[in-house]
Design brief:
The chain is α+β, with helices and mostly antiparallel strands and about 375 residues long. Helix content is about 45%, strand content about 15%. It contains 12 helices and 12 strands. Strands 1, 2, 3, 4, 5, 6 and 7 form a 7-stranded mixed beta sheet that branches. A 3-stranded antiparallel beta sheet has the order 11-10-12. It has a two-stranded antiparallel ribbon with strand order 8-9. It is globular.
Length: about 375
C-alpha cells in the first residue's frame, strides 16, 4: 500500500487537477459580468436587481466537466428582482425574453425548470430568475410538470455562509459581499472544498451511465460532507476524505424518520428536502448508497490495502490522466525542494520536503560539499 504521506500528497495534488483552470475562471467571471450588464440594461426603468452566483460556483466546489477542455465549466447565476409585485410566470418569461432577444445568446438558450440555460460547446450557465421580498427573503421560479409556474423558497447566500463556516471553523468571518467575484476568491481552496470536488468528480465518472435523475445530486454530497467534516488546522485532504466517506452509511441511518424514510434537507431552508423523492423513487436512494460505498472503497479502503501499483491502476479509469499528472506534480515539488535544500527528517515521519523551518531540517549535500 502507498505510505500515508504519499496518499496525503497525492490527494492534495489530485484536487488541484480537477479544479477549474484559471482560464475557465476568467471566462466565467467575464460571462457573469456580461449577463449581468445585459439584464440590467434591458430589465426596465426603476427595477432594482441583484445578481450573484449560487451552487458550486458560490460554494467553491466547481470542477472540470468530464468531457471538454480546460476552458469548460458548468455554473449557476441568480438574477433577483427586488421588491417587485410580479407573478412567477411573468418573471421567468421576462428574464428569458432578454436572453432570447440577445444576438449573443439567442441561439444558445433553452428553458429548464428553474432556469434559462445558456449552452456552449461543453459548458453551460444556468440563469435562475428570483424575487427578493422587502423582508429580505428570496424565492426562485419553478416550472411545474403541467406547465404552470410557481415560486419556491430559496436561500443560496445563507447556504454559502453555512458551508464556508464549516470549511473554516473558528477562522470563518462572515462575508456580506457574496455578490461579487464569483470564482476568483476560490483560487485557493479549503480542505473541505477539495474533498467535495474529489467526491463530485468520482460521482460524475462512476455514475455517468445512470439516468440523469438517479445520479447522486451535488448538493446532497456537499451537505453530508460538510456535516461530517471536523475542521482543524492540520487536517489533510486524505484524512478528511477518510473521515467523511467512512461515516456516510452511519449518517444516513441517523437521518431516518420513524417510518424509515430518509430526511436530509437544506440546513438554512427547512422547506427544501434533498431526499424528498427517495420514497417515491427508491432507485435514487439505492444509487446514492451504492455510490457512497464505492467512494469509500475506491478512495480509501483500496488505498490502505492494495499495493501502490494496483491502487494507481484502479484509480486510472476514474481520474484518468489526472493520476499520472498528480504524481508528476509531487515529483517536481520534491525535486525543487531538494535542489533548494528545503528538507527535514524525523524517525516518525521520515524524509519531508518543503519544511525548512523544522528543527530537524538539513541542507542538500552535493558532490562539491555545498
Amino acid at each position: 500500500m502507498p505510505e500515508k504521506k504519499e496518499l496525503v500528497n497525492f490527494y492534495q495534488s489530485l484536487s488541484k487537477e480537477i479544479q477549474l483552470s484559471e482560464t475557465a475562471r476568467d471566462i466565467v467571471e467575464r460571462t457573469f459580468d456580461t449577463i449581468k450588464n445585459l439584464i440590467e440594461m434591458n430589465i426596465g426603468k426603476n427595477i432594482s436587481i441583484v445578481t450573484f452566483p449560487q451552487g458550486s460556483c458560490s460554494l467553491g466546489t466547481t470542477i472540470k466537466p468530464l468531457k471538454g477542455s480546460d476552458e469548460d465549466f458548468d455554473v449557476d447565476l441568480i438574477v433577483a428582482l427586488k421588491n417587485e409585485d410580479i407573478e412567477a410566470s411573468e418573471l421567468k418569461q421576462k428574464i428569458g425574453a432578454i436572453l432570447l432577444n440577445s444576438s449573443r445568446y439567442k441561439d444558445k438558450v433553452e428553458e429548464r425548470g428553474r432556469a434559462w440555460c445558456i449552452k456552449y460547446c461543453q459548458s453551460h450557465i444556468d440563469v435562475v430568475p428570483a424575487l427578493i421580498s422587502p423582508d429580505g427573503s428570496m424565492c426562485i421560479t419553478d416550472k411545474e410538470n403541467d406547465g404552470t409556474y410557481v415560486y419556491i423558497k430559496s436561500n443560496p447566500q445563507g447556504l454559502t455562509r453555512w458551508f464556508l463556516s464549516k470549511c473554516r471553523g473558528n477562522d470563518y468571518k462572515d462575508d456580506d459581499n457574496l455578490k461579487t467575484k464569483p470564482v476568483h476568491p476560490y483560487a485557493s481552496y479549503t480542505v473541505l472544498q477539495k474533498v467535495v470536488q474529489i467526491l463530485k468528480y468520482h460521482r460524475n465518472v462512476v455514475c455517468q451511465d445512470l439516468p440523469e435523475k438517479e445520479k447522486p445530486i451535488s448538493m446532497l454530497i456537499t451537505i453530508i460532507s460538510a456535516e461530517l467534516y471536523y475542521y482543524n488546522n492540520d487536517i489533510t485532504v486524505f484524512d478528511a476524505l477518510t473521515q467523511i466517506t467512512e461515516k456516510i452509511p452511519q449518517y444516513l441511518e441517523q437521518h431516518k424518520d420513524e417510518s424509515g424514510h430518509y430526511k436530509i434537507g437544506n440546513p438554512v431552508n427547512e422547506d427544501e428536502m434533498f431526499t424528498d423523492k427517495w420514497e417515491e423513487h427508491p432507485e435514487r436512494k439505492d444509487a446514492f448508497i451504492n455510490w457512497a460505498n464505492r467512494a469509500y472503497n475506491d478512495l480509501i479502503s483500496d488505498a490502505l490495502n492494495d499495493p501502490r501499483v494496483d491502487y494507481t491502476q484502479r484509480l486510472q479509469p476514474i481520474f484518468g490522466d489526472f493520476v499520472s499528472r498528480s504524481y508528476e506534480n509531487i515529483g517536481k515539488y520534491d525535486q525543487n525542494n531538494q535542489l533548494d535544500g528545503n528538507m527535514s527528517y524525523t524517525n516518525e515521519s521520515g524524509l519531508k520536503f518543503g519544511d525548512s523551518t523544522d528543527e530537524n531540517s538539513f541542507k542538500r549535500n552535493t558532490f562539491w560539499g555545498n
